[in-house]
Write a structure and sequence with these properties.
TIM Barrel; 10 strands; 35% helix; eight-stranded parallel barrel
């Protein structure tokens, strides 16, 4: 079964492997398969589920809500996010203004079929809205009982400090950040993680398998597999491009004997690696078929020894992205229309 970890400096526990439905539910995968995958996650001990109002323009939340019907609500941890355009995508259907946050939380709760979410997250930083306005709205959402905790996604160290200070002033808890993180993409280690450790903020990391590249299925000098994420612009093809250079793919292939020596599959090694970082509360995984989770969940509770960690670093070498400046390039300087 999947182990649990505390989220930030709180008494709230989540499953360290969390099911996300970014590019699957409501778009890439049919509803029946999506619901079966959620049920498989529950059977495997995953009780934490992450979505966003912008995923398939609300359809992903609706599918997740259907999949969780009949489950004991108190035994689940349901996360969603706000920022990106939703609905008809009008001028106030995006960003972190008070209006958009208040409209969005109500829409998310209706689609999810629940009275509250456990964690409500700012999907990106909004440079066009005063931070005080955003956090006052979040505080009101919490006081209305519509969310228990507040989190963010892909915020810089400085943004985390400013947000944490406002949250504390308003009497609410900012306990998480949701950045990209994997063996290949380590940009949060330089500034974001140290700041988060100081503030009592955990990371819920997405793409722990570097968009599937760390599975080893993408081979140097070979066309990308048909039907893979790299061939589908709706399934994260933009994000995977940075990892498809031949020298990166060659480095990934050097991980295979390391995984074999550890008695792990390549996906298990990738997920176990991110969970070795004590600031990581959970690795977000996706699945288009129920059987994919049977392999993934076995990474929970795995401890990689120092020799294995050193071997991974040596194998990947210069293929690793570690420049902390990349954390300043994620949130758009203007709202996405």
């Amino acid at each position: 079964m999947v182990a649990y970890r505390y989220l930030g400096n709180s008494g709230f526990k989540i499953s360290e492997i969390t099911l996300g439905n970014w590019v699957t539910h409501g778009s890439q995968v049919g509803d029946d398969a999506a619901i079966a995958t959620v049920h498989a996650a529950l059977d495997a001990g995953i009780t934490t589920f992450d979505t966003a109002d912008a995923y398939a323009n609300g359809a992903a939340e609706t599918v997740l809500g259907k999949a969780l019907e009949g489950q004991r609500r108190e035994s689940l941890e349901i996360f969603t996010k706000v920022y990106f355009p939703t609905g008809p995508k009008g001028p106030n259907d995006t960003g972190l203004s008070r209006k958009h946050i208040m409209d969005s939380i109500n829409g998310s709760l209706k689609r999810l079929g629940t009275d509250y979410v456990d964690l409500y997250q700012a999907h990106r930083f909004d440079y066009e809205t005063p931070l005080e306005e955003t956090f006052q709205a979040f505080a009101d959402v919490v006081r209305q009982g519509k969310a228990l905790y507040i989190g963010v996604s892909e915020w810089t160290a400085e943004q985390l400090r400013d947000g944490h200070a406002l949250a504390k002033q308003l009497g609410i808890q900012l306990i998480s950040n949701q950045p990209q993180y994997s063996m290949l993409w380590r940009v949060i280690e330089g500034k974001v993680v140290p700041a988060s450790e100081e503030l009592g903020i955990s990371q819920i990391v997405w793409s722990p398998m570097a968009q599937g590249v760390l599975s080893g299925k993408y081979l140097p000098g070979q066309p990308v597999p048909e039907g893979s994420r790299a061939t589908d612009e709706k399934s994260g093809a933009t994000f995977i491009k940075r990892f498809l250079a031949d020298d990166t793919l060659e480095a990934v292939q050097r991980l295979t004997p390391i995984a074999d020596e550890a008695g792990l599959s390549m996906p298990q090694l990738a997920i176990a690696w991110v969970l070795q970082n004590p600031n990581i509360a959970a690795a977000l995984v996706g699945a288009s078929r129920p059987e994919q989770l049977a392999d993934t969940v076995k990474a929970s509770g795995v401890t990689l020894d120092a020799d294995t960690l050193s071997a991974i670093d040596e194998a990947l070498g210069d293929a690793v992205f570690s420049d902390a400046e990349n954390t300043y390039e994620v949130s758009p300087k203007q709202r996405v229309a």
